[in-house]
Design the sequence.
């Protein structure tokens, strides 16, 4: 077993709201084990890439990080990334990352679905990802 | 239009891997209206868990932040939270006590939060993307 530390902050003021946004999580410890990928880079020019196959099984959950590293993220792509679950018969959309966007989510493993696949949208782009098996 | 400064870090070392984990990003997010800057709910155990909608299918693209604020997050709950599409057909996320997630949600999907294993406390925020 290994541990990594996660920190997250969102700060700012929204027009018309009296309370500022001040979300802060400092060095929350995540317990994890292999198989994990600490850093990977891909270019998505068409089709899709399976990041976490659903075949990893029920009860095998992961912390997943993905960032669209197109033009605002130090690379050259301009497209969006569509995030879908990797169900063999009924792939469903979950999320969409514009250039520069990132996500972090604990992904549940069901055995027959619950994996993650990323899809090309309207233009090629680049992305980095990492996932860590949660225990 | 408003902006939010984000910061996300993951650091540590995984057993058996030579490279350490060192992820750090801090993009500025452009935010429109409507938004929920801070919301709290307690999951409901009735009938195996009630879906509590936080984003409707008609809502625009948005960023969703959610954290299980049970016993190690400032609350008293001990359960997990399932993150479910609002039509109930897809459970794609699961948060143990203390876990959090931050992810963009595409319009038309909708998100509900659902009881899993025991009652717990939830903090969430929603920011519409212009």
Sequence:
């Amino acid at each position: 077993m290994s541990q990594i530390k996660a920190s997250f902050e969102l700060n700012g003021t929204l027009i018309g709201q009296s309370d500022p946004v001040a979300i802060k999580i400092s060095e929350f410890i995540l317990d994890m084990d292999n198989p994990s990928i600490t850093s990977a880079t891909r270019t998505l020019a068409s089709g899709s890439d399976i990041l976490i196959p659903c075949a990893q099984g029920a009860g095998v959950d992961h912390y997943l990080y993905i960032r669209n590293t197109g033009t605002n993220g130090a690379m050259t792509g301009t497209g969006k990334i569509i995030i879908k679950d990797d169900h063999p018969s009924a792939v469903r959309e979950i999320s969409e990352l514009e250039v520069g966007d990132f996500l972090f989510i604990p992904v549940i493993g069901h055995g027959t679905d619950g994996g993650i696949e990323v899809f090309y949208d309207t233009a090629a782009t680049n992305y980095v990802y990492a996932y860590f098996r949660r225990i | 239009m408003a902006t939010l400064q984000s910061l996300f870090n993951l650091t540590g070392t995984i057993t058996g891997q030579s490279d350490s984990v060192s992820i750090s990003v801090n993009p500025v997010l452009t935010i429109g209206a409507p938004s929920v800057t801070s919301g709290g709910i307690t999951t409901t155990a009735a009938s195996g868990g009630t879906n509590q909608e936080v984003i409707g299918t008609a809502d625009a693209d948005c960023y969703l932040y959610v954290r299980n604020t049970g016993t190690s997050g400032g609350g008293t709950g001990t359960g997990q939270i399932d993150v479910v599409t609002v039509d109930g057909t897809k459970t794609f996320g699961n948060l143990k006590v203390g876990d959090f997630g931050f992810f963009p949600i595409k319009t038309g999907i909708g998100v509900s939060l659902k009881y899993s294993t025991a009652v717990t406390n939830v903090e969430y925020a929603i920011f519409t993307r212009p």
About this structure: Chain B touches chain A through 57 residues (CB under 8 Å). The radius of gyration of chain B is 16 Å.
